[in-house]
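During data preparation, a discrete fold description was generated, and the record follows.
___
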Amino acid sequence: MGKNHTLNPVMRDVSHTDDILDIKYVDIDPEAPKRSTPIHLTALAHVKERIDKATANVKVKYGFLTLLNRNYDLCEELKSNLNRTCPVDEGPIEFAVDVDVPGFIPPGWFHLEATAWRDSDEKQLGRILADVKF
């Protein structure tokens, strides 16, 4: 069974209830992202099962055009952005990250979909959707 939990004004947790992560919150500052203004994200999730290695697929669409469809090694992202390493054991995990927003973004709606899974068995970690208007 899936969730449809609003995390903030632009993001929704649409994970399944049996996913490995139970996303508690994702705070975003500013709440309405703006061109050329960095976004600060803080998040807390509860890890239900150990994660040795994981991948996330991130898709960004502008209307019907796909601007990004890329897989990320989450262990590498943890290491380079948060100075953490895999494995990630059961329990709470909290992080903060800054994301640069380019100034050349065209006006309109952007849709982001991020889905992550554990590599060893492809069990889903979680899934987030975001809709942002610039």
The two ends are 33 Å apart (CA to CA). The beta strands are 5-6, 11-13, 21-29, 39-47, 54-62, 65-73, 91-99, 109-118, 124-133. The helical segments are 74-82. The longest strand covers residues 109-118.
